[in-house]
Amino acid sequence: MFFRPLSSSIVLLMLSASGCAAEAVDAPPVATSEEALTAGAPSLPAEVAALLRGEALPAGALDKLHTIEHQVPVGPGRKIHLTETFTLRAWLRWPHRALLMLPGPLTSGDFYQIDADGYRGRDLVAARGIFAVTADFEGTGKSTFPTDGKTVTLDGQAAAMHKVVQYLRLVRLTPKVDVLGESWGGGVAAELCADRIRVRSCVLASMLYKTASPFADASFRSPGFRAFLDTLPNGYFPTAAPVYAGLLASSPPSVQTWASANLPGTYTTRPLYDVFDLPFFSPGLARAPGLIVQGELDPNQALSDSLELAADYGTGGAALQVIEGGGHIPRIESPPSNTRYWSSVLGFLDP
């Protein structure tokens, strides 16, 4: 539901009070000071400032999509790049809602925002009155690149994303942030979701948990592929369009064209090494309500692996949504897999 917003001073007082209480319970500390964390936050679009001042807005202004970029400091010389899309309805909704989306290996946050109808994930989320945010892990996209890409560990990125969660709470006056993680990004999400004070819910999608399929063992978990990774200098993989051909086999031509033009780049290899030692993450740490989303025909593991993940999530398990006919990443596949994926995710986030 949408309501007239509380004044920003009242909201800040509420967030500050809940934050102080949280530190005394079980929320992990956020080392960066709030002032330093938010000092570089970008200015708001003029329409948002006008809305917050109570000025009249032109017709259609509430549903107009706005996209801005952020660079969040997470350590000395280290920054996480975010891209955010929202409508003015997100500012009218109380409590404010924000979804942080974390990508899988060899992709950046923009992989959630494929420029084709039905595949612009940030737009789909933002249309529900939610601040939709995609992140680049370090060693990918527009975030900082350490000298050695292998140092981009899951625990290190979870610590960085804890600061991103706190940043979003402060700059968007959001009591709790929802998290969606895909593949290796889902492992990071599971650690974030141990923080039930700052994180509202957790979606883990396209996950490989304990038992890989023969296909996975013969491809990206094979000794030959590991030997190839060892030859890459400085822990980085410079990709080209053919690397993504198998991933995009069930995608429509518009998605394949976008991916061929936008996915190739340089990426940390650390996520690719982590899947050699399963499980590479601990879903039992999670305390926020969870949803596992898996394609029925995912070639990387059997459905039993997803059932085990759902059972092991948190203290009471997570819901499991199997996308009928879907492969490894249903949201990039041809309809109806993509629509079923987003219907499941949005139905969980915003029923």
Give your account of this protein's structure.
There is one protein chain. This protein has helices at 8-23, 34-38, 46-52, 89-92, 121-126, 154-171, 184-192, 214-218, 223-231, 253-262, 270-274, 303-312, 337-349; strands at 66-75, 78-86, 98-102, 131-136, 177-182, 199-205, 236-238, 266-268, 290-295, 319-323. The chain is an alpha/beta fold. The chain has a single domain (8-349), classed as Alpha/Beta hydrolase fold, catalytic domain (Rossmann fold, 3-Layer(aba) Sandwich), CATH 3.40.50. Helix 6 crosses helix 7 (184-192).
Unreliable segments of 5+ consecutive residues: 1-27
The CATH C-level name is Alpha Beta
Report the oligomer: single chain
How many domains?
A: 1
Cα-atom radius of gyration = 20 Å
Strand order of the largest sheet: 1-2-4-3-5-6-9-10
Molecular shape: globular
Sketch the topology as an H/E string, one letter per element: HHHEEHEHEHEHEHHEHEHEHEH
